[in-house]
Structure formats: C-alpha cells, structure tokens
Amino acid sequence: MRLKPLADRIVLKQLDAQETTKSGIVLTGSAKEKPQEAEVVAVGPGGFVDGNEVKIEVKPGDKVIYSKYSGTDVKLDGEEFIIVRQGDILAIVE
Predict the structure, then answer these.
(1) Which of 32, 39, 56, 81 is deepest in the core (most CB within 10 A)?
(2) What is the DSSP secondary structure assignment for residue 20, as one 8-state letter?
C-alpha cells in the first residue's frame, strides 16, 4: 500500500534515534529522545489551502526538521510514518 498525501500535506519517515551520546554513553530505550529529523517520503500537490496558494517546497528524499508536537502518526504495513502540513516543517537539512 502507498500513502498519497492531499493538499499541502507531507508524509515523513522518522530517522532513528541516536543510541549513544557524544561522550559514548549508551542510551536505553526510555532515555532516547524522539528525533525531530525525518526523511520526506511523499508530498501532496499543493494548491489552495484556507484561501491561500501553497507551493510545495520539499521533495521525496529530502531530510527535514519538523515541529516537535505536529503531525499524525500512521502505521502502515509495519512501518511508521508521520503526516504533517508543510507549515510544520521548519528546515531542510543539507
């Protein structure tokens, strides 16, 4: 199955949490902070949202940083995805 987002929505696949700190301490599952970095899997067509034209500025394969408490978590075929609005994406990581 595939996810095809509508309007200004973006489907993200969250990148794995860091398992060790910079000093080499191994983190347990509960101590790992959920990363806010993800890879773009699919993008909607854009168009008009709330009367304003929205141009999609990300593309599949981009690595992005998104707002901490944004989006909807979706589990499909055993994989977890996050669907966010383009406005919830804060930056593209280059």
Answers:
(1) 81
(2) B
Cα separation, 46 vs 52, in Å, equals 10
Residue 30 has pLDDT above 80, yes or no: no
Cα angle, residue 72 at apex, residues 55 and 76 outer, rounded to 5°: 105
62, burial (CB in 10 Å: exposed 0-12, middle 13-18, buried 19+):
middle
Residue 77 in tokens: 């075929």
CA atoms within 13 A on the CB side of 94: 2
**β-pair partners for 49:** 52
Neighbour count for residue 88 (Cβ, 10 Å) = 19
pTM passes above 0.90:
no
The tokens of 93 are what? 């990581």
Q: Residue 15: is its pLDDT beyond 90?
A: no
